[in-house]
Amino acid sequence: MFNKIFLMGNLGANPELLVTQGGKKMARFSFATSFSWKDDVNDWHEHTDWHNVVVYRESTAYRVKRDLKKGDKVWVEGKLTYRRIEDRWGKYHRIPYIVISGPHGWVELLQSRNPQPEDVDVSEFEYTPEDNSEDNPEYLDEGSSEFLDEDFQSNQ
Hints:
Layout: E1 5-11, E2 16-20, E3 25-38, E4 44-55, H1 58-67, E5 73-86, E6 92-100, E7 106-111, E8 138-140
């Protein structure tokens, strides 16, 4: 079996850093792909799709946070995965997202809107239970998909 997806698009927001309860470092971001076409009367139309990405490979998570910013054009290779969630009316939906972990995937910056990457503050990954400020990274169960419960595509 083979599961691999290749997409090119633009980041909708700066990537976020996360830490699982087991101490695993990860990143997440969303990006948009779009295409245009002419209809029968020569009017142009454009359609945009938003994609959610989770980076489980620690070295790539650091690089994603350091190098990628909102608006950057990126190339994403990963494994397509679906998560089942229940909405507030009790209806279930399958939510697609792209996973980058181990040998499964890569993220490459193709064109930046930001000339200089900023330094990644490694303290963003440190667990400090006494500090419950909003600046702390999220803590998730190892292998959890809880982060997808949020409105991941709030930038739409």
